[in-house]
Amino acid sequence: MLSDLFTMGIPIGEKVIRTVAVYVAMTVLIRVFGKREMAQLNTHDLVVMLLVSNVVQNAIIGNDNSLTGGVIGAVTLFVVNGVAVRLLRDNAAAERLFEGTPTVLISDGQFDDRALRHEGLRRGDVERALRVQGADDVAEVESATIAPGGAIVVELRAADQNASRGDLAALRAHVDARLDEISAALARLAPS
């Protein structure tokens, strides 16, 4: 019984090939079916992700429920992912091919409905992301994009951006300088 933990049901080479094949297939499927799947999970997307993990499990493990086989599969996934990440980081063309490029969802305060349809997003999904990032209305947005990883990145119009402490310090220094100039001018005008 204890020997079953370590006795593999399939050869190591087959285990590695199965794991790499499923990794590549899942990467392609996620790339094809869009960025929304990565960050904007709704109930249906979550169900699909949970079921996919169960569906591909047998493709990875084959006729093998051993501890050794599971560890070999996990190690293979980590190695393949590590290699893929390093290759993509150093090659911009490969990164665009496998990861994709950002998609503009809002430009100059206007939704791009074609881009929303392409990415499978509703206006409400994007509006929630806008509010989280400080916009009360789409009209305040210079641009909003969905990154290849699924994050929605919002750039507010300059007039609608919050002031930073640095902005306030610069304004305070400017006001103090102007007040000094006004005080000096008033002092010159005052009768002695």
Automatic annotation (TrEMBL):
GO CC terms, sorted: plasma membrane
Q: Where does this protein reside within or beyond the cell?
A: Cell membrane
Parts of the chain that traverse the membrane: 16-34, 46-61, 67-88
Keyword list, A-Z:
Cell membrane, Membrane, Transmembrane, Transmembrane helix
Membrane topology per the entry is: Multi-pass membrane protein
| Annotated InterPro entries | DUF421, UPF0702_alpha/beta_dom_sf
Instruction: List the coiled-coil residues.
Output: none
Q: Does the keyword Methyltransferase apply?
A: no
Q: Which residues form the YetF C-terminal domain?
A: 91-159
Please state which protein family the record places this protein in. Answer: Belongs to the UPF0702 family.
Would you tell me the protein name for this molecule?
YetF C-terminal domain-containing protein
- Give the species: Pseudofrankia inefficax (strain DSM 45817 / CECT 9037 / DDB 130130 / EuI1c) (Frankia inefficax)
